[in-house]
Specification:
6 helices; about 10% strand
Amino acid sequence: MRTRNAGLAAIRSLFRYAALHHPEHPAIIGRLLTIPPKRFDRRLVTWLTEPELGALLAAPDRMTWIGRRDIALFAVAVQTGLRASELIDPRCGDVHLGSGAHVSCHDQQRLLDLGVGGYTSSASLWAVAMV
């Protein structure tokens, strides 16, 4: 829907230019300039409820290595709010266990989005029962 509006904006820009340089076609140009943009609903940002979070964390098989890995990834995602690209990128040195457990995040995509010299954040972790 948004691409339709972008295309319509380009057409309007062209026909505004045409209206100035070719005044002999006012009816056609006027009709095109009156086309309304398409309305669209913005998607609401929603969060998972506690029962949904519980179901998400209960879904993986805790008896397998992959299941425990999935639980750990889901728990870190829920606790920190990391993006998927940030969630899959941490190295061993970015995860700090023990007292004051936390994970550090260094995301190159946010560097590009923000246009700044660096983006580093740190988020605390709380325990999730693995058994």
